Amino acid sequence: MKYTILIPPAFPQATVKEVLEDYFLIPRKIRHFLRTKKHVRVNGQPINWQSRISAGDLLELTFDEEDYPEKSIPFGDADLVDCLYQDQHLIIVNKPEGMKTHGNEPTEIALLNHVSAFVGQTCYVVHRLDMETSGAVLFAKNPFILPILNRLLEDKKISRQYLALCQGSFESEKVTYRDKIGRHRHDRRKRVVDPRQGQRATTHVQVLEKIGRNSLVQCRLETGRTHQIRVHLSHHGHPIIGDPLYHPQNGSRLMLHAQKLSLVHPLTLETISVTAHSDSFEKNLKK
After folding, report:
1. Per-residue pLDDT tens for 205-233?
2. Using alpha carbons only, how large is the chain's radius of gyration in Å?
3. I need a labelling partner for 212 at 20 to 30 A (CA). Which of 85, 138, 148, 226 fits?
């Protein structure tokens, strides 16, 4: 694999060593291979490890099979992929409800397999959506960019905005839930608010519209705990309509949709922002 990266104007001033280690998060063993094999070039020329990289430079990285062993998964159906954005390194797609982001078994076919078929190579999950949730999902197209995107996610630099139709009325237009979330003691599928042993979780909620006895809300995540929005809303008396785990009543689908996803591309520093639409979500809003 060979990657050519044009260093953008706002890129931090650093040496080749610092860029590979601190910014690209390339493991020590692979950095050693890059150095000994002279697989790092700047503007077509071999470089010293302490050479500084400047805006406008062309950084070339070449990885061998021993650097990133090829991972193979079964391809799914490329026609099932609704692509919202893609470039050499990442792809964002619109997941339909009722489809897993990735399989639990090596042979199980899920969205990851369909995306890999669409791209023509094995892709990697950056974050996931529950099977019942629709909307924007980010995948890495190679193992080089994966840890960089994972760090952006951990540093809360990937913004995820959801729409949810939930039960009841809110006392205020905006509210933030910070209840810790942990595993349910008796049902491994579920999560609960657990102030003692739970993980920190923050969900910002804004009421958009009152629809009958329900409320359409916009939710923005600071953390990405399993079932976070579903647990927070349910715990505070506003379970999501159609939720089979936390509000098991009649409903054609879970009324939770990942509407927007935004990030600053770590290599180009361009802002990427996509909006995902769901016909089934919008149809059920009108019922």
Report:
1. 999 999 999 999 999 998 889 999 999 99
2. 21
3. 226
